[in-house]
Amino acid sequence: MPTPPVPQAGLRPTLLSWLSTPRHALTSGEVNRAEALAWQHRARARLAALLAVPFDPVPLDPRALETVQLDGYRRTMLAFDTAPGTSAIAWWVVPDGVDPAEQPGGTPALIATPGHGIGARDLLAMDAVGHPRPEGEGYQQDYALRAVRLGVPTLVVEPLGFGVRRDHAAGTPDDDASECAAGSLLASMLGTSLPALRVNDLRRAVDLLPALGADPDRIGLVGISGGGQLALWTGALDPRIAVVGVSCYLNTFATSVLAMEHCACNAAPGLAVELDMPDLAALVAPRPLLVEAGLRDPIFPIQGTRAALDVVRRAYAALDATDLLLEDVFDGGHAWSGRLLPELLAHLQPRDTRPRPSLPERLA
Q1: For the CA atoms of 26, 30, 33, 38, what is the dihedral angle to 10 degrees?
Q2: How far apart are CA 97 and CA 262, in angstroms?
Q3: What is the per-residue pLDDT for 24?
Q4: How does pLDDT run across 76-92, given as a tens digit for each residue?
Q5: Domain CATH for 149
Q6: In a domain, 14, yes or no
Q7: Is residue 363 part of a domain?
Q8: How far apart are CA 284 and CA 232, in angstroms?
Q9: CA–CA separation, 249 vs 236, rounded Å?
Q10: Cis check: omega of the bond before 269, within 30 degrees of 0
Q11: Where in the sequence is the domain holding 198, given as residue range(s)?
């Protein structure tokens, strides 16, 4: 393959020369609680501006499309409105023996959103067209269904352009990975970004859950890969989310999405100039945060994850919450681990019974 006449003529060297890694107190040294909180206030405001959507909120208008009783749980397919002319699709999955409508104050609830692949059905032991398949297959390991098996009602939200939210009118096949490139182009021409629209969907899911019987103070959000991106960005932006789980995503922009071929859905104009991935994770503090990372993940290299965790640990230390940062660095690739999911979900228990665990052993 021919190389440019000078290195600076190439695509990445040219554009990455514009990037200067943001330097603030969390990356340059120790900070105290007041400094960390002040930084969070400023950074969250900038993130909100960068992920702004060009419309006002619309009524949710939730409606059930299908309900089925399965082995140990009830699954309802829902539609709800998130933007003008836009309906999100989700599956509300409730374990047998749990009735959110009858529990005083509501039940804990988890929002789960998938990575690239066939879409949200791949978190619920279904194939691309909704037929059942054995549990635990694929790189995502049906982690939403795992949460349900642990007793937590779970809302599985389909990202715009994934699964049943592909552009079928344009002939996109069910087994196509996504329409992120088309979605990113359309969103940018309309004055926003694809991740901003997907984050908006998840924030509207937080709005929806109390109407389904969830306790608004006990809502978690978990995702892997592209879903991990959405979990991290939404958790950073929206303090209503009580716990956040990020699998196979936390890294630095310079060593992952800007260093190699990555999906267009990672693009939010201007974000990398102002905030890096560990900054977004620092915005989750002091809420419980689970980070999963495979030692052999080819698209989110472990050295970038370790550099990011160094920053995140400083944020949690400054806010006296080091025991609420859960790290699972496992011997594997780009795949769900799940070893600390029960510990993360334990933080959604009622405050008078919720354990505050000691700092877990590092699983590196």
Answers
A1: -40
A2: 42
A3: 58
A4: 999 999 999 999 999 99
A5: 3.40.50.1820
A6: no
A7: no
A8: 8
A9: 14
A10: no
A11: 27-346
Q: Please name which of 139, 148, 169 lies closest in space to residue 74, comparing C-alpha atoms.
A: 148
Q: In whole angstroms, what is the distance from residue 161 CA to residue 358 CA?
A: 40
Pairing relationship of beta strands 325-330 and 289-294 according to DSSP bridges:
parallel
Q: SS3 breakdown of the chain: % helix, strand, coil, rounded to 5?
A: 35, 20, 45
Cα 361 from Cα 344, distance rounded (Å): 14
Structure tokens at 223: 């995702």
Amino acid letter, 161: G
Please give the model's pTM, rounded to 2 decimal places.
0.91
| Position 196 in a domain | yes
Q: Strands 63-70, 73-83: parallel, antiparallel or unpaired by DSSP?
A: antiparallel
What is the number of domains present in the chain?
A: 1
Which residue has tokens 């640990």? Answer: 313
Which tokens go with 50? 């960068």
pLDDT at 156 over 60: yes
Q: Which residue has the tokens 């939200």?
A: 157
Q: Token pair for residue 188?
A: 């940018």
What is the identity of the amino acid at 50? L
Token match 């549990």: residue? 135
Residues 6+ apart with CB under 8 A from 38: none
Q: Residue 101 corresponds to which amino acid?
A: A
pLDDT, residue 170, reads 58
Decide: 292 and 330 in contact? Cβ < 8 Å. yes
Which DSSP state fits 322? G
Write out the two tokens for 20.
């200067």
* Residues 109 and 153: beta-carbon distance below 8 Å: yes
| Model confidence pLDDT, tens digit, residues 212-247 | 999 999 999 999 999 999 999 999 999 999 999 999
